[in-house]
Amino acid sequence: MEFWASLFYKYRRLLKWFSLYLALAGPGIIVMIADNDAGGITTYAATGAKFGFSFLWFVILLGPIAYVVQEMTVRLGAVTKRGHAEAIFDAFGPFWGWFSLIDLGIVNFLTLVTEFIGMTAALRIFGVPPFLTVIGVSALMIAIVMHGRYWTWEKIVLLFCGMNLIYIPAALIVRPDYSQVMSGLMPAFPYGFTGEVFFFLMANIGTTIAPWMVFFQQSSVVDKGMTEKDILFGKLDTAIGALFTIVVAVFCIILTGTLLFKPGGTDIESAADAARAIMGGQPLVGTALAVGLFDAGLLGAICISLASSWAMGEVLGWAHSINNKLSEAPMFYAFYFLSLLGAGIIVLLPGAPLVLITLFVQVIAVTLLPAALVFLIVLLNSEELMGKYKNTLFQNILGFLIIFMIIILSTLYALSVLFPEVFL
Amino acid sequence: MSADEECEGQAKKNWVEGWIGKVKEINQKYSQPRLHMTPLVKASLLALRIYLILLVLILVYKFYLVVR
């Protein structure tokens, strides 16, 4: 009898714990899955078509890296109750604060453009003209944030996150060669160390960890009202998100690696082109790729425009919560709408090299990332700010290793641009 | 200059002055950073920023080469 009572008690405790997790889950999953945005899907599709399964191991490695970075934002947000932009101004003063805010503003706007590029390209496959996509998507995104409730916004966005998993069944349908897939899990550089390899590796890092994610998750944790006692749930949420993001990335690479890769590599113009090429032989899979690309762009656009609006609101002192109604936070919502409008207009400009812009924006984002990470680690090491939640030595070593790796890769890529003959 | 144009000009001037005032207010609010950094740390952070901006300029150059 005592055994059953104890079992029931444990079951009730687990159920309560799980209910609490469900209530607190969101920021980590959203930021990680939105990270597989239109640029991300384009990069994964291009990586699979160009290098087959060769860099699966590298993409898997990016999961723990993304977790290490994002977990720090959970602690910082929950302990300081400040968004990242405000935390930088407060800790380092206005010079570094403005520097970071301008950096973020430029990179976020460029990334937002890439989201619209992805969405318009995806819907063009189904005959929807780009101007209609821009208008429709902007209206949808405005409707999503206009509820005036963080909870509602989060649940709608989580629904879109679920759609991002469409690449898993799509990749399974094409029946990949699993022995080849397994061989891609072994770390190797079968294509040597060329400028192109560096570019693709950096683009993959850029899709997995980006400056906007740091700002977004910290602001999101604050807007949701998470505190120190919720940190464990925040970490779990982030870990689950990191797992999902890498699973989707891997399956996307498996998909294009199976259908489009040929010895010597296949250059694809974009994920939308990949979808169009696949549609000829596998209409269902091609459609899944296009729908997934649209969903990825939409998720990315929602999160990136919010990351910018939160950061601006924190620094400029505007009311800046999704819990505010339009009349309560007019500047916050105006900035959100205007950034959407600006990015949408750029995509409609005729003759713009949209695919090239997408790949370069990923690489620019990752090149600027170390500066944001250094600030993050310095903040996390402050006893005054973080108390017992400050970084451990191990977390610092991991953080600086990530920064070091990104700087080395960025430098190698820059050298390959300046001295291409050395990296042939 | 018509009265309307004058009014519009004044509104623009007020708008710009409002923003300058806002930036000054923010600079004042955060003028005492909570974390103290030694000059060496400040110089290292600045050097890192400049280096990263240089790398981005190389990327922009590469982008120009490809587009051209």
Question: Helix and strand layout, with pairings?
Answer:
The complex is a heterodimer of chains A (424) and B (68).
Chain A: H1 2-24, H2 27-34, H3 38-51, H4 56-80, H5 84-92, H6 94-124, H7 130-145, H8 150-163, H9 167-173, H10 178-183, H11 195-208, H12 211-224, H13 231-259, H14 271-281, H15 283-316, H16 330-348, H17 354-380, H18 383-386, H19 393-418
Helix pairs in contact in A: 2-8, 2-12, 2-13, 2-15, 3-11, 3-13, 3-15, 3-17, 4-11, 4-12, 4-13, 4-17, 5-6, 5-15, 6-7, 6-15, 6-16, 6-17, 7-16, 8-15, 9-13, 9-15, 11-17, 11-19, 12-15, 14-15, 15-16, 17-19
Chain B: H1 3-29, H2 39-67
How would you describe the overall organization of this protein?
The complex is a heterodimer of chains A (424) and B (68). Chain A has 19 helices and no strands. With 424 residues, chain A is an all-alpha fold. Chain B is an all-alpha fold. Chain B has 2 helices and no strands. The interface between A and B is medium-sized, with 33 and 25 residues.
Quick synopsis:
Chain A is an all-alpha fold and 424 residues long. Chain A is built from 19 helices and no strands. Chain A has one domain (26-186, 194-423): Amino acid/polyamine transporter I, CATH 1.20.1740.
